[in-house]
Amino acid sequence: MQKVPANRAIFWLGSAFRMVRRDPYAFLGMGLIYALIGLIPLLGPLTVVLLGPALLGGMIYAGQFADNSKQTRSRPQLGAMFRAFQGDRRLGSLLALSLPAIGVIGVGLVILGFVVVQAKANGSLPNDMTAVQPTALLKALMPGLLRWIPLLLVLSLLAYAMTFFGIARAMLEDCNAWTAMGSSVWAAWKNLGAFLLTLLLILAMSMLAMIPLMMVLMPMHGLWIASLLYNTALYALLGPTLYFAWKDVFGPDPANQDGTGEDSKSGQQETVIQV
Q1: Domain range summary for the chain, segments of one domain joined by +
Q2: Residue 24 contacts by C-beta under 8 Å, 6 or more apart in sequence?
Q3: b/e map of 192-204 (b: 16 or more CB within 10 Å)?
Q4: Which of 107, 151, 232, 268 is deepest in the core (most CB within 10 A)?
Q5: Main-chain phi, psi angles of 51, to 5 degrees
Q6: In whole angstroms, what is the distance from residue 64 CA to residue 245 CA?
Q7: pLDDT digit string (tens) for 75-115?
């Protein structure tokens, strides 16, 4: 495990942009599939939570293939996204990596239930909530929910830390889920600057992209189109970003890499993985 400076987050995202630009069909196609799954009513969000790490693991796998195949000009295929489902024992570990997200969602639902009960007890909400307007409901619950935001933020960061390097470790190193999550948290802590800067940059880019999309498409009732375009781009970048983060921290010794993060000619040659 290597310790890297905080500004490596810029390299991770920049390298991901270049990779997607070099192989747009594969990565944008994978991002589109991920985004479409999330738009399925009821089942979509549940599928993303449960199968998201396995699908993202396939996108990380495609990122490794594209990185290792630059000299041969081989291209990752769209099917690489489902690599974890091809009878590999890694699937169990990747599915277990959905537990942090499930835990955060579960805590959030418990908090929401507690706030609703509390609001009813102090008279802010009627016992029959069917006639309550959404805006009035939000106004009544917001003061109670605000008190729990710091806890949810800490839990969300912990969940991200468990999977930030963990998915790549489970997919590319065949680690079991508990080793992957534990080492991922430690690596995120050891590289806290790069970890937090990556999340902040992704959040900033998301806001910069989503606001204009909503301004253009909302008047045309195209919110779902804006969501589809945004999520396609986000997930297309996310797989390669997590791959480059894993490569920097758990991959070859930086002493064997040049200033751009690429392996030097004298360094150890990586094995090309066929998809």
Answers
A1: 8-251
A2: none
A3: eebbbbbbeebee
A4: 232
A5: -100, -5
A6: 11
A7: 888 888 999 888 766 888 999 999 999 999 999 999 988 88
pLDDT at 158 (0 to 100): 95
The tokens describing 234, both together, are 């986000």
Nearest to 38 by CA among 20, 25, 51: 51
Scanning the structure block, which residue is given the tokens 């392996």? 263
Report which DSSP code applies to 255: G
Cα gap 185→17, rounded to integer Å: 25
The pLDDT of 256-274, averaged and rounded, is: 38
Is 165 exposed, middle or buried (CB count within 10 Å of its CB: 0-12, 13-18, 19+)? buried
Alpha carbons 116 and 268: distance in angstroms, whole number: 58
- Mean pLDDT for 167-193 is 93
Q: Are 84 and 74 in contact (CB under 8 A)?
A: no
**Separation between Cα atoms, residue 10 and residue 198, nearest integer Å:** 7
Which residue in 168, 221, 211 sits closest to 57, CA to CA? 168
Q: How far apart are alpha carbons 194 and 201 in whole angstroms?
A: 10
Question: In one letter, which amino acid is 199?
Answer: L
Q: Is 73 left (phi over 0), alpha (psi -120 to 50) or beta?
A: left
> Cα separation of 275 and 256, whole Å?
26
Within 10 A of 179 (CB to CB), how many other CB atoms are there? 14
Give CA–CA dist 209/217, Å, rounded.
Answer: 12
Distance of alpha carbon 211 from alpha carbon 203, whole angstroms:
12
Q: Indicate the pTM of the whole model.
A: 0.83
